[in-house]
Amino acid sequence: GRARVRAVTRDPRVSVCVSSMGTPLGELKTVTYKGMCTVLDDADTKAWYYPALAAALIPGDETFQQGFARFLDSPDRVVLRVDPGQRIDYDGVKMVNATAAWIAEERSHAE
Hints:
Blueprint: H1 3-10, E1 13-19, E2 29-40, H2 43-57, H3 62-72, E3 79-91, H4 92-110
Antiparallel strand pairs: 1-2, 2-3
Helix pairs in contact: 2-3
């Protein structure tokens, strides 16, 4: 019943943006995938996905993983699968460096 699920049911074209914030890569980097989304509500998908997600989010604590997977398995929950198409990278560090180089060159021409 959530707005996002209704939206992708009407139009499955989506984009997913992942930021590097909080990772060893530092800030100012993203990757965006444009793709098609499928809403999955079958028991087989939920049976493998919830434990896999719990293991990825809570490594090393199998008891908590199992509890989290049970928590996720609520009657109306669905899984959104995105089949990626176009990939769009952004590296803000490269942009900052290129901008600084351009400014330095412009200033040297002005002198």
